[in-house]
Amino acid sequence: MRNTLACLTLVLAACSTAWAQKGSFDPPGVGPGFVASNGASWKGEVTKVDAAALQIELTYTKDGKTTTFNCVLFENLVRLKNSKPDEPVYERIVVEPFITGFKPEEREEIRALVASAALDPNQLLGRRVKVFYLRNKYKVPGQKEKVEKNEVFRVEVLKTR
Asked: How far apart, in whole angstroms, are the C-alpha atoms of residue 151 and residue 55?
């Protein structure tokens, strides 16, 4: 009886662990982020912006400890139509596969239209955001080691506290 109870407890504990790991998780922003099947996410306040390089720095402070996160925005992050005015959501739009059937001058017009609607990183300075990113490695000519970049494909502007 005692062994049966112990086995049942172990099975239930294993099942509850598996159940807890499935689903979504919203990290409080402590640490380097949270890895999910589609990438990772990170919350913080945008403290630095390099608009030319599309780079931003997020800072999160809790209990006197400050953590920073540097990332690069993908080009063509466009505001989603159904996002709230005070909490806009920007997501990457990939244009190239969809414009192959157009004439060259029409392609340029579409590219220009998407670029004009793209997010200006300076709009994020001082705002709290949640970014979704992919950590990619790139080979740099003349270097042995690959360079790692955190590339943001979605930005959610959060309410100010």
From this structure: 9
Question: Do the beta carbons of residue 27 and residue 43 sit within 8 Å?
Answer: yes
Q: N- to C-terminal Cα distance for the chain? A: 54
* Partners of residue 53 on adjacent β-strands: none
Report the predicted TM-score, pTM, of the whole model to 2 decimal places.
0.70
| pLDDT tens digits, 35-62 | 444 468 899 999 999 999 999 999 998 8
Which amino acid type is present at position 18?
A: A
* Chain segment 84-99, per-residue pLDDT in tens: 888 899 988 888 888 8
Distance CA 111, CA 117 (A): 10
Distance CA 159, CA 45 (A): 11
Report the greatest alpha carbon distance in the chain: 79
Helix (H, G, I), strand (E, B) or coil at 75: coil
Q: Which residue from 69, 54, 82, 52 is spatially nearest to 128, judged by alpha carbons? A: 69
